[in-house]
Amino acid sequence: MPERRTTWRRRRALSTSTAAFAFVVLLMVALIAYATSISGSVSVGPCIGAGSTSSASDAIKIGFVTELSGPAVSDGYGARVAAELAVNETNASGGIDGRPVDLVVVDSRTNPQEAAKCAAALDQQGVVAITGATDLGDAQAVQAYAEANGVPFVVSAISSASLSPPGSNWTVSVQPDAVQWGAALAKYVSEAVPGAKIALMTQNAEQQREMSQGVRWYASTFKNDTVVFDQLYANAQFPWATAAAAAKLSGANAVVVSWLPTVGFSESNVVEALQSAGFLPSQIFVASATNQISDLGVGAAGIRGGALFDGAMARGYPNASAFANELQPFVNGELNSPDYCGVCPTEVGPLYYYTNLGMKMMINAVLEVLSGGHALTRADFMSSMKQASIQDAFGNTLTIGASGSSVGHYYIVAAGPLNETSSTYPLQLVSTIEFAPGTIPAYTLSKTA
């Protein structure tokens, strides 16, 4: 069975029941402190406000359906932090056309049926749009409601191309999709290893399967590289030495690993096995949903991969560094800090970045409608979102096309050597890849992933 597409904060196992109890108590304290400091409310329930950033009668309401309990709780809290940073910044500078933004947060419980109910509840409250989902199943449920009821739905933190079907009237995807992500990496592999024979190793999860579809599409369309080994794996499938040896015996001279880290497991397990089987770091390429490219185990210097945003890429890019620094109190703080999230992902990756970027795009879309002298209707908001653009942290423009899908840039990064004080590899941005709109049939490929 495909695994749920969620990113989990890796935790060290506790050895005694006393330590486990202490951890639970501290975690509860962290959650209460975080919820109180950010939103002034700690009530979390099904479709009941888990937080609100404004109580003003003229506030512009944006609904935020996210996972504050259930399997995706880590991602849900991380998305909430990123969105509220953008909203608080806007309100601190006077709001939108003098009106504050009210982010109305509700808990979907990582349950698609609950997510649909939450969307209906927010619709009845008169929100101008809904965003916030980090779980694909939840997002699909909210999308179905939004399309049927004419409610704008902005997907910021999920890269599945399945959320951008032709004919969508009310859905916008901000994060560039996973199919094109895989195709971008395959394009780079064809340039870095001329005549590449690719061993494709894919985790059985939605986003990873879509990435691998992009690799296959590029190889079969442009024929600059060939897939000679193509296997789907579950996290629990060991020993990896056997899988790595099979990839080596296939005659591959390049390996593309498409993996989503989970508790106690990451790409490093696969990468280390590949190196033991005889693959050089320069022959290993990682398509990663998080910043695990900078945390690939022993001897990872020289490995390259495709990324959208990675905190380890920030060096030399002021906007990227500023964003990573802004998040540090939340993701790497202390339990007694009023900012510390407690359960949020500790890696500053696409989840945080695109949720924040998407919220800024939504705020800009509202401003465009109001500054044009129009009443803020959902139709006008959606029209503005489908023409939206924003500069990303690396100086490139991300735009939303008429279909509602984003046209952004994919970044190829290389892991540099570790220094004496760092536990993660510094990353160097070595290539930027962008596809013209409509070049890749991403939605069609996602449906067969």
What does this protein look like?
By secondary structure, the chain is an alpha/beta fold. Helix 4 links the parallel strand 4 and strand 5. Mean pLDDT is about 85; it is low at about 1-30 and about 35-45. Helix 2 (about 75-90) packs parallel to helix 10 (about 350-370). The protein has a seven-stranded mixed sheet, sandwiched between helices. Strands 1-3-2-4-5-6 form a six-stranded mixed sheet, with helices on both faces. A three-stranded antiparallel sheet has the order 12-13-14, with no helix packed on it. About 40% of the residues lie in helices and about 20% in strands. The protein has two domains: about 15-150 and about 320-390, 3-Layer(aba) Sandwich (Rossmann fold), CATH 3.40.50; about 180-310 and about 410-445, 3-Layer(aba) Sandwich (Rossmann fold), CATH 3.40.50.2300. It is globular.
Oligomeric state of shown chains = single chain
Q: Note poorly predicted spans.
A: 1-29, 35-45
The CATH architecture designation of the largest domain is 3-Layer(aba) Sandwich
- CATH topology label of the largest domain: Rossmann fold
* Share of helix, binned: 25-40%
Assign the structural class, choosing from mainly alpha, mainly beta, alpha/beta, alpha+beta, or little secondary structure. Answer: alpha/beta
Distance between the termini: 14 Å
Q: Roughly what is the average pLDDT, rounded to an integer?
A: 85
CATH class of the largest domain: Alpha Beta
Rg, nearest Å? 21 Å
Please outline the major beta sheet. Answer: 7 strands, mixed
User: Approximately what portion of the residues adopt beta-strand conformation?
Assistant: 15-25%
CATH superfamily of the largest domain: Response regulator
Please tally the helical runs, counting DSSP H or I stretches of 4 or more residues: 12
Overall body shape = globular
Number of domains as seen in the coordinates? 2
DSSP, total strands:
16
Q: How is the largest sheet built, in terms of strand order?
A: 8-7-9-10-11-15-16
SSE order in H/E notation? HEEHEHEHEEHEHEHEHEEHHHEEEEEH
